[in-house]
């Protein structure tokens, strides 16, 4: 715990946090910096993120192309944020969601990335850079990446209101989430978020037990039903939180929900077993249900999508050698191969141009242009995802990302919201 | 929680055995027993006492979204009991959560006690040979060869809407539509908990039964006691410590359990552990610590109450 690279202040809140983490006997990985770098030794980047983002193929390919050793540290979404704050020198590169930034940045543990060292920084997708798709503004409720992308300088702890030369996170993957349904078990069309609370699906609906995301899905449903109108679904007032939770509690008491899920795999099991026919879902989960040969649709809804974006950040405690390697790795990541690898799992990527170059034309047409597949669509590991002729749910990139209504968020009233959410679970 | 019981139990054993050793080996220097106890004491101090003290201290701290700050505030405890003493007819979250937990504790305790006692009784008194007893005892432990998450998850394909039980019931025409309450319900949680923790009852009760002097049972028989009278007047009083130890295991584990309640209850049923987990995930360490301290107090009170019923030191 002693070899901390303090960049700001003396005794800070985070040093106390760190000390208390050590006190609690947490398994703290301390990196000893300052050893002379040995030129022949391969540099290792400890890459912290959720397991979903950690493809062994990307690590292998990066090792081959760059001679960088990628060491994955796989934790859950919440744990990524927790680890950045409590153990900031246990990783060299973090892949975290933009919505965590309002928590991470003030901790002073995340360093801005110098845009001039990122070759393709001006080619990053416009939906991330300025919240537009094809020149049109998308919904920016919640923590939209464009609002938290720029920093006034490398070591800032507050966001810049405008475009600057320093970026908080370089996008890795992003996507637009909606409800997943089992069309074979549902009569009639589903076209609105209101369906999540529709008594027609009593006992067969599910939602996430991740409060920050779950409450937004509920808000989409409540607003779609016409019960109330939100100022900003991603940043509710206490009154809005109270009303939302009241509606959820009522639905729960009426037996609307079969179960809640926190883990991606749980949502897959709920859907595949037929326990649930409609639920908040993530794109790769829909793919996972389908690869089991079970019909599952990622249903576009008229109110639009709830989007999320994830990106690379650097810890302030990073060593010089690792920092250079991290920039090199990020540049490589944006250059095409890695993007194409992720796009074939259904994610959208930071630099669309290079992704397109690295994909087969029929793959690009299916994943990004919403066209029917000319050939069978394979996953990166060679499993059949879709037969020739299928089209992607929701259509093209522009149709899907263009219809984003809100972004995953951390609210100002987060602490209050979590208390109310626990009330909902206990109801 | 189970750690705390273990400490209690082993401390008790330590006290007795080191006391005995002291009398036997009075020529060794007085510091020797302390040195012998030191490694374990050190381990407990580092990995049990210190974290516990830290948790207690942190429960009075302030926090924001991304930091915790040393302070002495009671706001975390006020938040834990938010709305509990406002006089409104609806139960506050914390009381509702503990009530729900208490319900499971009661159901699971009764069920594991009945099943555990029966199994132990059968093993101890109806199986005549020791090898057979050991063999059957091993059979009881087979489910423990795999992790408890897997044991829980195996219930899901069995109890689900399209699961084996429902398919069987519908195919033989007992029910028209699948029974929904088999999974993701109180029933499912209670079933899984009983399944998981019955062995914790069997082991100490079996242990107590094996120590019963068989001549006592013969004496009861000779004195004309019926089977039932022997059971209630001889066996049950003598296995009380076993029942108590088993009960402490079951009660403390169920009170702190949140995985089983989460998985089998479809996360729709609240548990204190889950509340703490959610708060930790959102970096609200101080309120999570306050919740943990309250939970610890509840568990310790329960154990204290149970120990008052049976003087376990005397019985051991």
TrEMBL record, chain A:
This is Extracellular solute-binding protein. Keywords: Periplasm, Signal. Transmembrane segments: none annotated. The keyword Signal applies. SUPFAM superfamilies: Periplasmic binding protein-like II. Pfam families: SBP_bac_8. Gene3D superfamilies: Periplasmic binding protein-like II. Coiled coil: none annotated. InterPro entries: SBP (IPR006059), TAT_signal (IPR006311).
């Amino acid at each position: 715990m002693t070899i901390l690279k303090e960049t700001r202040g003396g005794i800070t809140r985070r040093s106390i946090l760190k000390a208390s983490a050590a006190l609690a006997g947490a398994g703290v990985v301390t990196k000893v910096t300052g050893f002379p770098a040995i030129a022949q030794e391969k540099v290792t980047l400890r890459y912290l993120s959720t397991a979903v983002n950690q493809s062994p193929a990307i690590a292998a390919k990066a090792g081959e192309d760059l001679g960088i050793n990628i060491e994955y540290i796989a934790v859950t979404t919440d744990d990524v944020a927790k680890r950045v704050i409590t153990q900031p020198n246990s990783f060299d590169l973090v892949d975290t969601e933009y919505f965590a930034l309002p928590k991470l940045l003030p901790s002073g543990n995340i360093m801005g990335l110098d845009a001039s060292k990122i070759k393709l920084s001006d080619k990053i997708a416009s939906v991330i850079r300025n919240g537009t798709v094809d020149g049109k503004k998308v919904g920016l409720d919640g923590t939209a990446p464009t609002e938290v992308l720029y920093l006034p300088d490398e070591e800032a702890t507050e966001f810049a209101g405008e475009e600057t030369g320093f970026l908080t996170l370089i996008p890795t993957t992003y996507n637009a989430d909606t409800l997943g349904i089992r069309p074979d078990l549902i009569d009639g069309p589903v076209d609105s978020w209101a369906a999540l609370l529709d008594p027609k699906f009593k006992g067969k609906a599910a939602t996430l037990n991740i409060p920050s995301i779950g409450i937004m899905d509920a808000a989409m449903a409540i607003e779609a039903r016409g019960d109330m109108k939100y100022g900003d679904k991603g940043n509710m007032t206490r009154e809005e939180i109270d009303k939302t939770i009241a509606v959820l509690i009522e639905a729960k008491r009426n037996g609307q929900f079969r179960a809640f899920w926190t883990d991606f795999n749980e949502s897959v099991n709920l859907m595949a077993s037929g326990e649930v026919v409609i639920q908040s879902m993530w794109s790769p989960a829909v793919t996972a249900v389908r690869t089991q040969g079970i019909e599952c649709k990622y249903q576009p809804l008229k109110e639009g999508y709830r989007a999320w974006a994830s990106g690379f950040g650097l810890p302030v405690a990073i060593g010089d050698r690792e920092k250079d390697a991290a920039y090199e790795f990020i540049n490589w990541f944006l250059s095409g191969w890695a993007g194409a690898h992720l796009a074939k799992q259904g994610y959208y990527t930071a630099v669309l141009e290079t992704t397109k170059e690295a994909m087969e034309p029929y793959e690009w047409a299916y994943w990004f242009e919403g066209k029917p597949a000319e050939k069978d669509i394979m996953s990166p590991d060679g499993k059949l995802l879709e037969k020739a002729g299928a089209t992607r749910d929701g259509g093209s990139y522009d149709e899907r990302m263009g219809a984003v209504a809100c972004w995953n968020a951390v609210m100002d009233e987060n602490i209050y919201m979590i208390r109310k959410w626990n009330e909902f679970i206990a109801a | 929680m189970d750690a705390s019981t273990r400490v209690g139990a082993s401390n008790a054993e330590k006290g007795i055995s080191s006391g005995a050793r002291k009398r036997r080996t009075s020529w060794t220097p007085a510091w020797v027993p302390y040195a012998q106890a030191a490694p374990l004491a050190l381990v407990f101090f580092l990995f049990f006492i210190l974290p516990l003290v830290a948790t207690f201290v942190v429960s009075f701290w302030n926090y924001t979204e991304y930091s915790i700050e040393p302070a002495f505030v009671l706001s975390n405890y006020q938040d834990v009991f938010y709305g509990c003493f406002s006089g409104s007819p609806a139960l506050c979250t914390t009381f509702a959560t503990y009530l729900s937990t208490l319900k499971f504790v009661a159901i699971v305790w009764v069920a594991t006690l009945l099943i555990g006692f029966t199994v132990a009784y059968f093993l101890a008194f109806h199986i005549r040979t020791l090898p057979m007893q050991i063999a059957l005892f091993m059979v009881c432990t087979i489910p423990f060869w795999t992790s408890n998450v897997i044991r829980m998850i195996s219930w899901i394909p069995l109890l689900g809407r399209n699961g084996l039980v429902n398919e069987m019931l519908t195919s033989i025409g007992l029910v028209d539509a699948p029974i929904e309450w088999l999974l993701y319900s109180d029933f499912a949680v209670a079933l899984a908990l009983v399944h998981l923790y019955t062995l914790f009852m069997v082991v100490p009760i079996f242990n107590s039964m094996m120590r019963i002097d068989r001549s006592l049972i013969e004496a009861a028989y000779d004195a004309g006691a019926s089977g039932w009278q022997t059971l209630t007047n001889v066996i049950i009083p003598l296995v009380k410590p076993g029942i108590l130890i088993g009960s402490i295991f079951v009660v403390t584990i169920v009170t702190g359990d949140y995985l089983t309640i989460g998985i089998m209850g479809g996360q729709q049923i609240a548990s204190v552990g889950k509340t703490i987990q959610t708060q930790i995930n959102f970096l609200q360490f101080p309120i999570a610590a306050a919740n943990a301290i309250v939970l610890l107090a509840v568990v310790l009170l329960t154990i204290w109450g149970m120990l008052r019923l049976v003087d376990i030191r005397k019985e051991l």
